[in-house]
Amino acid sequence: MKDQLKKVLAGGLALSLLLTGCGAGGGTFATVNGEKVAQERYDVQLDVIKSMIAAQYQLPETIKKQLVQEVVMRQDLEKNEIKLTDEDYKEDFDKAVKAYGGAEGYRRTLEVLKISDDQMKEMLKFETISRKHKEMYAKKNAPSEADIKKYFEDNKEKLVKVDASHILVSTEEEAKEAKKKIDGGESFEDVAKAVSKDGSAQAGGALGIQNPNTYDPVFAKALLALKEGEISDPIKTQFGYHIIRLNKNYNTVDSVKDEILTALTEEPYQTYLQKLVDEAKVEYPGEKKAEESGKASEESGADSGESKEASSEQESATSGSQESSAESK
Fold it and tell me: What CA–CA distance (Å, rounded) separates 213 from 262?
């Protein structure tokens, strides 16, 4: 959800830049120490940036695809008698405001992007419709407990995670001293901040929630041998000496169930959504008019060419006739 929201906001930024108007093309954009910078130079550079952004985000195709998906998802929700409420839209709007740093950050963002609050809310509708549609699909196609357990067993190595903290020092003596301080009542976090040479020191040694396979093999083996809340004796790795604490173990089906459900439903959902799009009757009148206009222009050009050719032939014939008449005289 968080990644999807980031994409929506990034797309909105790109689109707002594309929609920002240019100057009239003439006149002076700025003066620097009396030297004029032409408005045309600013306009040209802005157009180049717009083209780069459009290419980066593949905006025309992305927007076209998103709008079609939005309609078929909403129609499918209505078909299944699910109505979107103001609260549904507000939920995603509140997430966006939070992502921008609160109400003041959101207000400044609108000013920078030169868009209105209503325009932002309109852009976020896709996020709400998409979220509700996925929820509907997941509810109707919920994996069985047997499927969930099987997936866990088949993918345990990549699913299992640990929340750990550590203190890293250069020598075994330093490590023993750090452990002694913790055993004596000092908090793990305070000791980490004071003596650890790792980048995690300022966070009290916190390493976050990670798959054990991301760590040094010796470190991972020692970590997995601990019980939740247990602190190790000094452990030597290629990086130095560690004191490790296992904060929480995510090694059961229930602890990683949300991740399993996402894995079991995301790919089938995308297939389902694509099927809805493929079966929809989608027409683009604007594109059709543009094609017709292009053809008309080509035909007009061809007609003009034929007309000029006929006129040229007629002039040649007339000229020949006049010359012949002159010779007879």
Answer: 21
Assigned token pair, 44: 């040209």
Distance CA 124, CA 12 (A): 9
pLDDT in tens, 263-275: 999 999 999 999 9
Q: What is the pLDDT of residues 89-125, one digit of tens each?
A: 999 999 999 999 999 999 999 998 888 999 999 989 9
H helices then E strands: how many in the chain? 13, 6
Question: What's the pLDDT tens digit per position in 288-301?
Answer: 665 666 666 666 65
Q: Pairing mode, if any, of strands 161-169 and 240-250?
A: antiparallel
Both structure tokens of 238: 């290629």
Rounded to the nearest angstrom, the gap between the alpha carbon of residue 13 and the centroid of all alpha carbons in its chain is: 12
Q: What token pair was written down for 143?
A: 């994996």
The full 3-state SS of 27-54, as one line of letters, equals: CEEEEECCEEEEHHHHHHHHHHHHHHHH
pLDDT, mean over the chain: 85
Report the alpha-carbon distance of residue 298 to residue 263 in Å, rounded: 52
Cα 199 from Cα 240, distance rounded (Å): 14
Find out whether 168 and 240 touch, Cβ atoms under 8 Å.
Answer: yes
d(CA 123, CA 20): 16
* DSSP 8-state code for residue 256: G
Contacts of 95 (CB under 8 A, 6+ apart): 1, 5
Structure tokens given for 327: 């010779």
